[in-house]
UniProtKB/TrEMBL annotation:
This is C-type lectin domain family 20 member A isoform X1. Keywords: Signal. It holds the Pfam family Lectin_C. The keyword Transport does not apply. The gene is LOC116224143. It comes from Clupea harengus (Atlantic herring). Residues 23-133, 139-241 form the C-type lectin domain.
Length: 302
């Protein structure tokens, strides 16, 4: 891992620690949408959980036995996205270049494969060959049967990522490479919290009902501390969270060597590039947080 990659990783760790949610149980019988509106009016949003620590805090509020109630996790057919965070977020039925093989009615899959010239939903646990890409979007067929998560890990270790597709040209290149076989690509269907942050646990591990039907796209916490998918129009109690205000200062020391592609004579531009990339990455990791980045130059002896 290069120096800059290490800097970003360290920053993310510190940022995660700064997120604080205060949870509240509301014993009113409301639908999921009504509960979301109530939480946004009285607190910050329906409860979202992003760490083991926050999960423990939520369970403390839930009590023993657990008080059943809505949380902010939900799903729609419009959450398909690519593994490269800055790539286009595709809806299931939008008018761009992708072409879907519709699944049988009532089925639900989480990961995307590619066959001939079409996207296809599949269970993430199935084993397929897969296509990796490098930073220049050159594709590499890997003929090793793996599930989607293992394929993603393999590509990120040995290349850049699972294949992301940006255009008809990319799709044509990929089709020529795989020659008709079905392969994993970097397309997946994400669950999201009502505050639009990403659900980071893998959904294959979730208990409960999973269905493409609209009545089963909202989630509540049940008495056994598991997550259950249910009818969004069901009226039941719910959990809200309040984002607590917190200011933290994180200082990261960066040493720029002579190998910098920008050159030491253009250090101001280099500083701006680094700050811009850090800002972009922090915005992805914590879209609800405000932060300011500053560059302080340390004078050292020659």
């Amino acid at each position: 891992m290069g120096l800059f990659g290490l800097i970003l990783l360290t920053g993310f760790w510190a940022l995660d620690c700064s997120v604080i949610h205060e949870y509240h149980f509301v014993n009113l019988l409301l639908t999921w949408d009504e509960a979301k509106a109530y939480c946004r009016s009285s607190y910050s949003d329906l409860a979202s959980v992003h760490s083991d620590e926050e999960q423990k805090l939520l369970y403390q509020v839930a009590g023993t036995p657990i008080s059943k109630g809505w949380i902010g996790l939900h799903h729609t057919r419009n959450n398909w996205s690519w593994t490269l965070e800055d790539n286009h977020l595709y809806s299931y039925e939008d008018g761009t270049f992708e072409k879907w093989v519709d699944p049988p009615p009532g089925t639900y899959k989480q990961c995307g494969s590619f066959i001939i010239d079409q996207w296809s939903q599949m269970n993430c646990s199935e084993a397929l060959n897969f296509v990796c890409q490098n930073a220049d979007f050159k594709y590499f067929l890997i003929e090793r049967m793996m599930d989607w998560n293992k394929a993603l890990e393999y590509c990120r270790i040995n290349y850049t990522d699972l294949a992301n597709i940006r255009s008809e040209t990319d799709k044509s290149d990929l089709a020529n490479l795989v020659d008709g076989q079905r392969v994993w690509i970097g397309l997946h269907n994400r669950w999201r919290w009502s505050d639009v942050s990403i659900f980071t646990l893998h959904t294959d591990a979730l208990p409960g009902i999973i269905s493409m039907r609209d009545q089963f796209k909202c989630v509540f916490l049940n008495v056994s501390q598991s997550l259950v998918f249910n009818n969004c129009s069901l009226q039941q109690p719910f959990y809200c969270h309040k984002v607590l205000k917190q200011t933290r200062r994180l200082m990261v020391k960066i040493r720029i060597g002579m190998s910098s592609p920008y050159g030491l004579e253009d250090s101001t531009n280099l500083h701006q590039v680094i700050l811009k990339q850090i800002h972009q990455e922090l915005s992805k990791q914590a879209p609800q947080q405000n932060f300011t980045l500053m560059w302080k130059k340390e004078l050292t002896e020659e």
